[in-house]
Design goal:
590 residues, alpha+beta, Heat Shock Protein 90, 3 domains, elongated
Length: 590
């Protein structure tokens, strides 16, 4: 069939078009971390580096909360979009923002109380380290609402294809953070308090840059506090908690790892690990960005019950994304010496060697993390309990803690780095064994590996996929669609009109949409026979255009124009148009 793989290419292009913007969101926090670390090591000292390391469990907690809300709301909003349920889109959007406000303000109150009453003594014994941590908390607290709300707005703006605004917000955050750290730490000498306040200022710049869009009439998702209900909040959190499980348990992993490092290596171990993590945080946004793109796309795919696109999406991640991450891992290892010298320059200092080995070993866990993170997200979307609950817990804490308990006493810092690599291998084996158990054999294809739920979407013989990249291919569409309908026993009238309507609609896109810019485009047509209905879907990556709006202004006297739109309006039970992630999607049910 012509262009059979074009739909995969469209999924792939969309994936990698969205990826840079999702990476930018995560780079904000990574940039804040590395800026704090550089200012801490160069203007404050090792105590400040230890404070950043000791604060990391709280960072993991905040990210876990944000991810829980983002992942739950994105899946629910995406499914509602796929089903063209606009009211549910507004309901879950509004509820997500309201619960974000409540949780972030509650977190600020608890952390401020803990720092003010010195409750941090239960996790930090050294008085100097504890004072540094407390001041860092006071500096970070004002930015927590902006952090949590900013991540929600970023995810929704991505769904509305507002990538320019999210890009500007990302750079605004980084620039403000650097500027404020220069003033507060380097000039005024406020130490860890200044480090935290600098991050908070950057996060507010990020949030306030995005907010005006949702105060305007342009926004596709409408906020209303009246749409908030505790019931919807529960739905969001129940749907989203599997996506945040690994981050929640990472908080406890950090506590255990910090204890083991202090006991067997000393505070220099914390300093080395904090330095490595601050740089790795610049590269971790790539696999986590992949995870975010998957979450953006998979909700819509599930809402549409698009079986082929589900397989194609998994194929993109498990091949192209995995190979991309392997290349990034090799780059980090090659740059181990200059990266180490950003923080420590004395080759005779033990912390120098510990940091360099971190850059040589720790990156090896990243390609395997792409696989485990993806399957946890995929499991969350299809509600597979083992993948969405068990896998994240073992990936986020259990394996690393178990391997660390045995390896750190024997191998010191290298034991921790190797424990993270072994964690990735163990998680990969868990996924393989799960798939083998489900299929009753070792998986032989992507479809078997991802364990597609029974009854999801249309099987091969119940659908036809046609991709068009040039005008000469349009003439074959009607013949292929009519032939498919006849094989499925669909009456001749519906078969004829379905073929003719799709040929006309595709021809319009090629003739008009392809010429509006110099980019390569394709029209992907899918015909599905399900429950006595014929479902036609036309998807293209051209400039946004709603053919239904055109129907309302048709010249009723000239019946020779806009034949495709007229046919659709005449034969369809239901017609819907959406611009999803920058793609035009027209769905017709006849």
């Amino acid at each position: 069939m012509k262009g059979k793989t074009s739909d995969y290419k469209l999924i792939s292009k969309l994936y990698f078009r969205l990826l840079p913007y999702q990476v930018l969101l995560l780079l904000i926090n990574a940039a804040n971390g590395i800026v704090d670390s550089l200012f801490a090591s160069n203007f404050v000292g090792k105590t400040a580096m230890s404070a950043i390391g000791l604060y990391s469990p709280l960072t993991h907690f905040l990210f876990a909360v944000s991810i829980m809300l983002v992942s739950g709301s994105q899946l629910l909003v995406g499914e509602a979009m796929g089903k063209n349920n606009t009211e549910s889109v507004h309901d879950f959007f509004s509820t997500d923002l309201m619960i974000s406000v409540f949780i972030s303000l509650g977190t600020v109150a608890l952390l401020s109380f803990a720092a003010a009453t010195d409750l941090t003594r239960f996790i930090v014994e050294n008085p100097l380290d504890r004072e540094a941590v407390n001041m860092y908390i006071f500096g970070q607290c004002p930015g927590i609402p902006a952090l949590v709300l900013g991540q929600q707005l970023f995810s929704f703006l991505s769904m509305e294809n507002q990538t320019r605004r999210t890009t500007i917000a990302s750079f605004a955050c980084i620039i403000v953070n650097i500027s404020m750290n220069t003033l507060l730490v380097a000039v005024l000498g406020l130490g860890t308090l200044g480090l935290g306040l600098g991050s908070s200022a950057g996060l507010w710049a990020f949030f306030l840059t995005m907010l005006p869009y949702y105060l305007s009439k342009k926004a596709g998702m409408k906020f209303s506090a009246r749409r908030f209900t505790w019931q919807r909040s529960g739905v969001i959190m129940r749907r989203g908690y599997p996506g945040a499980l690994s981050r929640f348990v990472e908080m406890f992993r950090c506590i255990v790892v910090n204890f083991l490092l202090i006991k067997y290596v000393g505070s220099i171990g914390l300093s080395a690990f904090a330095a490595v993590n601050s740089v790795m945080a610049v590269f971790w946004p790539i696999p986590f960005g992949m995870l975010a793109v998957t979450r953006l796309m998979i909700g819509i795919i599930l809402g549409e019950e698009d079986r082929k696109s589900l397989i194609d999406l998994n194929k993109v991640v498990l091949t192209k994304c995995f190979l991309l991450q392997c290349g990034i891992t090799a780059l980090i290892m090659l740059l181990s010496t200059p990266l180490t010298q950003m923080f420590y320059r004395d080759l005779s200092d033990p912390v120098y060697q510990m940091t360099k080995m971190g850059f040589l070993l720790l990156p090896l866990c990243m390609p395997l993390a792409v696989i485990s993170l993806h399957f946890a997200c995929y499991g969350q979307a299809i509600r597979h309990k083992f993948l969405s609950v068990v896998l994240p817990v073992f990936d986020g804490a259990v394996f690393v803690v178990l391997f660390s308990i045995f390896l750190i006493p024997a191998l010191q810092m290298n034991g921790l780095y190797i424990a993270n690599i072994l964690n990735g291998l163990a998680c990969f084996l868990m996924i393989l064994f799960c798939a083998a158990g489900t299929n009753k054999r070792f998986p032989k294809s992507i479809a078997e590996l991802i364990m597609i739920p029974a009854g999801f979407g249309a099987e091969e013989d119940a659908r036809i996929d046609i991709s068009v990249t040039q005008l000469t291919e349009v003439v074959d569409i009607s013949k292929q669609v009519i032939g498919f309908c006849k094989r499925r026993g669909i009456d001749g009238r519906r078969a004829y009109f379905a073929g003719l309507a799709l040929e006309e609609m595709a021809g319009n896109v090629v003739e008009h949409g392809f010429r509006k810019d110099k980019k390569k485009h394709s029209v992907d047509i899918r015909v599905v026979h399900k429950d006595e209905d014929v479902i036609l879907r036309v998807r293209d990556n051209c400039v946004s255009f709603d053919p239904l709006s055109r129907a309302s202004i048709l010249d009723q006297e000239d019946q020779t124009k806009n034949i495709g739109i007229r046919l659709v309006n005449g034969i369809a039970k239901n017609v819907s148009y959406q611009n999803l992630l920058g793609q035009n999607v027209l769905t017709i049910r006849i």
